[in-house]
Amino acid sequence: MIRHRSETALAILTLFAAATHFTLETWYHLTWGQPLQALLVDYICNALMLLGGMRSLIVRPGSAAGLLVAGWAYALGFGWRSVFGRLEAMSNGIRAANGEPTGTIVIVLLVALGIVAVVLLWALALAWRQSAKTGV
């Protein structure tokens, strides 16, 4: 099955996002600290995104849209939990123990979450197209 012409751009965006996320999350971890399991969740996301992006570029002219969806869906899921966990804590008057500027971080995370949702819809559209063309 031949891939949609926008999949290459999505794969490159995915690799860029994974590298950016890895860098920023590692910086956050070193600066503000966080439990190791929280960092591992981010690194699992990075691994999924790297797998999807690299596989998509390697299998051309085939498609790896499903793997791209997996990485972006995982990012949306744990990002959702991160944002709304912080919002809930803020509404209950709970401040972050590590001293992070929670209000600023929530705004940044909300913007990032919106971008992730849009890109996930793009990836889902490509995967839907692939499944419709192959009949699975």
Q: Would you write up a description of this structure?
A:
This protein has 136 residues and is mainly alpha-helical. It is built from four helices and no strands. It is elongated.
Shape: elongated
Distance between the termini: 12 Å
Structural class: mainly alpha
* Average pLDDT metric: 88
SSE string: HHHH
Biggest sheet character: none
Looking at how many chains there are and whether they match, the oligomeric state comes to single chain
Q: Which band does the percent of strand residues land in?
A: under 5%
Percent helix: over 70%
Query: How many extended strands?
Result: 0
Helical run tally:
4
Radius of gyration: 17 Å
Low-pLDDT windows of residues: none
SSE layout and pairings?
Elements: H1 7-32, H2 36-58, H3 65-91, H4 102-134
Which keywords apply here?
136 residues; mainly alpha; 4 helices; 80% helix; elongated
Could you give a quick summary of the protein structure above?
The protein has 136 residues and is mainly α.
